[in-house]
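Following up on my earlier thread - several people asked me to post the actual chain instead of describing it. Fair enough. Here it is, all 321 residues.
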Amino acid sequence: MNINKINTHHNKPIEVILRRNSNFESKHIVHAVVSDDKGRVLMSSGNKGLETFIRSSLKPFQSIPFVNSGAKEAFHINDKGIAIACASHSGTTNQAREAFKILWNSNVDIDYLKCPIPEGKISRLQNNCSGKHAAFLATCKKMNWPLESYLDVKHPLQKEIVRRVSELLLIHPDELISATDDCGAPILHLRLSQMAFLYAILGNSKNAELEQINRAIITNPNLISGEGKFDTELMLRSHRQIISKGGAEGIQCISRLREGIGLAIKVEDGSKRAKHAAALHILKQLDWITPTCIEEVEKLTIKLNRASEIQVHGELKFQET
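Reply from S.P.:
Thanks for posting it. Predicted structure:
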């Protein structure tokens, strides 16, 4: 698909410019959408109809069966277990331990984990998706579903995830296209506006299951990515008013808690530094976080050498009626 074709209001995308000694070096093109919890696009920049994979920003919604199956209660798993199920963590001892606790409490052997062992590591538990996989297995154990094939797109667990996401998006499950993420789990192909819609629902506190999930995330930000990482540092410094969950290839989704507003960002070339710089630029425009918070998060998470600087140009525009 030509990502520049669908742009009904001709909003210019946000541009993230890298300069070295004040001279141009690189440019990243960024698309962004703000939606409410009714699915209405409120603001956008660039291509609001852009279709791409949501990647790890889907994790809170992949955790719904873990919550509503009763696995959490049956296996005495606390909110840290939900948080690590939603995490793209750094593989620290503490984070890996939380993933292991899910398996231990649900009496599932670690050998069932199918996420890869990260390069230079010794255990699958150190994979940044190990919490999600552990929660998948605990859910399967509770529901008496097969453990060996839990990543198969036709497995009851994966079909239930698609059903719940389609239900939230008010579409038929057959409309959702899936592929395989780097960790081996199915992942969904969505419009950027649908991602923003999901995050608006995540933060509105009207869905009991998602309320448990957003509470677990916001009370355990250190598990979601880790010290010095964007999602963790942003949530810590926003006084727990927003949920932030990134994904690979330039995906960043953010929810404003209790207001039913979601933000989704996609960088065309997949740049991580660009999505973080663009996210802070947009959050400043939306007035969701303080200037001090922005400065602190930028300093901690966007690492540049002394000769380089990042400049962000462009704004979200309100949708025409």
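The mean pLDDT is 94. That should answer part of your original question.
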